[in-house]
Design goal:
alpha/beta; Rossmann fold; 11 helices; binds UDP-4-deoxy-4-formamido-beta-L-arabinopyranose
């Protein structure tokens, strides 16, 4: 049985991926430092899957500790690397924190495996900036990132591509997520923002349950049909399944090179106002919102061309915005009854 290391495996996308790896018959070991997640998620994963994943608390920025961990776990056949700081706004305020954490952890991991490992890297559509062509495909050039967070994703992709070019034993797949939202159908795991949610959907669910005031729609004067900004929202469970597909491709000999990039989205854009309407329709809960000014650093519209993942990963998103909203709401209601 293949044993997959999931770094950041108690986080939002990481925890859902651990569940899907289990469902696909993989053995999993999680490392996390709980800097942006809650240890209770390990109990939740255990309840969902029926078996407790192996776990080691580890700071991936500590080079020696990472080497010791990898030496003690020589049966790891692949890595899915989620562990990174990812708050756009915070990265603007604390750039060095982001560059240090996101690069030290990645480079320590690669070095600890002596550059001989199958690695799935958590990247982001943010590397495209505002694309000139929509839907955006993987061949589109990246643009100057709007934030240090986005820059860490761009530079990490370059580090991986350049290292793979001279390191045949290192096989890497960078997955460019669009906007991950929603929660597991059990409502036992989901997004756990710390403090006031910066992202749209957790703010919607917290506003709907009364934890927050009205939603502010950041701008309705964009050049879009209803004036609000458009994103490609993807259900976190679909996203998790794509990571299993990526690991399977790395384990096969099918990859055309030892460095590949895939967009992970639905291929469909939804505006902020459409997401709000979808939430109200799927939950029956009326939302209060006001129209505010545009948010600094936001792009106007983006959605992904997802044909490459369909072809090469044999994967496509199956859950629609209605299910994304319904599952996010069920998770918020679960949290109200079972605060972490
Ligand atoms: C979506 C839309 C906002 C909040 C970022 C990162 C991306 C990924 C996901 C990490 C935008 C609007 C939001 C609100 C609003 N990060 N909005 N009112 O900015 O597209 O992507 O988070 O994995 O890499 O770039 O996501 O959810 O913050 O915003 O109107 O209260 O909702 O302006 O148009 P974003 P988001």
């Amino acid at each position: 049985m293949s044993k997959i290391l999931v770094t950041g495996g108690t986080g939002f996308i990481g925890s859902h991926t651990v569940v899907e790896l289990h469902n696909a018959g993989y053995e999993v070991i999680i490392v996390d430092d709980f800097s942006n997640s809650n240890p209770k998620i390990l109990d939740q994963i255990t309840t969902i899957t029926g078996s407790r994943p192996e776990f080691v608390e580890l700071d991936l920025c500590d080079e020696q500790k990472v080497k010791d961990f990898v030496a003690k776990n020589a049966d790891i056949t692949g890595v899915i690397h989620f562990a990174a700081f990812k708050a756009v706004g915070e990265s603007v305020q604390q750039p060095l924190k982001y560059y240090r954490n996101n690069f030290y952890s990645l480079i320590n991991l690669i070095n600890a495996f002596n550059s001989k490992i199958n690695l799935v890297f958590s990247s982001s559509c943010t590397v495209y900036g505002q694309p000139d062509v929509l839907p955006v495909d993987e061949s589109e050039p990246t643009k100057k990132a709007e934030s240090p967070y986005g820059n860490t994703k761009q530079i990490a992709e370059e580090i991986l591509q350049e290292t793979c070019a001279v390191t045949p034993g290192l096989k890497v797949t960078s997955l460019r997520y669009f906007n991950p939202v929603g929660a597991h159908a059990s409502a036992l795991i989901g997004e756990l923002p710390i403090g006031v949610p910066q992202n749209l959907v957790p703010f919607i669910t917290q506003s709907a349950i009364g934890k927050r005031g009205p939603i502010t729609v950041y701008g309705n004067d964009y050049n879009t049909p209803d004036g609000s900004a458009i994103r490609d929202y993807i259900h976190v469970v679909d996203l998790a399944k794509a990571h299993v597909a990526a690991i399977k491709r790395l384990e096969s000999a099918n990859a055309s090179s030892n460095y590949e990039v895939f967009n992970l989205g639905t291929g469909t854009g939804s505006s902020v106002l459409e997401v709000i309407a979808a939430f109200e329709q799927s939950t029956g809960v009326k939302l209060n919102y006001t129209i505010g000014a545009r948010r600094e650093g936001d792009i106007e519209q983006v959605w992904g061309n997802v044909e490459k993942a369909a072809r090469d990963l044999n994967w496509k998103a199956e859950l629609d915005v209605t299910e994304m909203m319904r599952s996010a709401w069920n998770w918020e209601k679960y949290l109200q009854e079972n605060p972490f």
